[in-house]
Amino acid sequence: MSAKDTAQLENDLTASDDVKKFLTDNAENLREFTLAQYLKKLLDEKNLTRAQVIRDSQLDEGYAQHIFGGRKNPSREKILSLALAMKLSPKEADYLLYYAGHEKLYARNSRDDVIAYALNTQKTVLQTNELLTDLQLKPLLDDN
User: Fold this and answer.
1) Can you give the pTM of this predicted structure?
2) DSSP states of 31-87 as a string?
3) What distance in Å separates the CA atoms of residue 74 and residue 76, rounded to the nearest whole number?
4) Integer angstrom CA distances of residue 116 from 5, 25, 35, 50, 132
5) Residue 139 DSSP SS3
6) Residue 93 · residue 125 · CB < 8 Å
7) How confident is residue 132, by pLDDT bands cut at 50, 70 and 90?
8) How far is CA 53 from CA 13, 14, 15, 138, in A?
9) Is the torsion defined by CA of 54, 58, 65, 39 positive or negative?
10) Is 144 inside any structural domain?
11) Are 111 and 138 in contact (CB under 8 A)?
12) Per-residue DSSP letter, 144
């Protein structure tokens, strides 16, 4: 049995008339990850290095190493900076936010829309911050 993506699981659940059977049939696809495990999975899938992602994220290297090591519970801003550095899609960023315990990007929030746009167009953290600032929205990793 091959791994199912989230959309496939959602479709199967909607079509199912027996939740117990759905859970049994899809047990291997319902694995939960810690944030550190999910970050490692993304690095592997996207053939990225931790060092490059940390550099591109504009995060403090020591703090970022703690995130990857599972020793820090980062803010939503830091997770979004990692998502931009990893060149994730908005949907992938939502999964990363989920595993970090944060709300997904919300289409009725203009700041989240700009961040989703930046993810879709593979902007860097610095480019995203410039765009947010130009639109008079709070930039990522803003100390204020």
Assistant:
1) 0.83
2) ----HHHHHHHHHHHHT--HHHHHHHHT--HHHHHHHHTT-----HHHHHHHHHHTT
3) 7
4) 20, 34, 20, 23, 12
5) coil
6) no
7) very high
8) 35, 37, 39, 22
9) negative
10) no
11) yes
12) -
Token pair, residue 35, equals 């944030």
45 and 21 within one domain:
no
Question: pLDDT tens digits for 76-125?
Answer: 999 999 999 999 999 999 999 999 999 999 999 999 999 999 999 999 99
pLDDT, tens digit, 9 for 90 and up, residues 6-55: 788 889 899 999 999 988 888 777 767 899 999 999 999 999 999 999 99
12, HSE (Cβ side, Cα atoms, 13 Å): 17
User: Is residue 117 assigned to a domain?
Assistant: yes
Q: Rounded distance, CA 139 to CA 144, Å?
A: 10
**pLDDT over threshold 90, residue 67:** yes
User: CA 71 to CA 59: how far, in whole Å?
Assistant: 15
Does 41 lie in the same domain as 4?
A: no
| Number of domains within the chain | 2
CA angle, corner 70, sides to 64 and 71, nearest 5?
A: 75
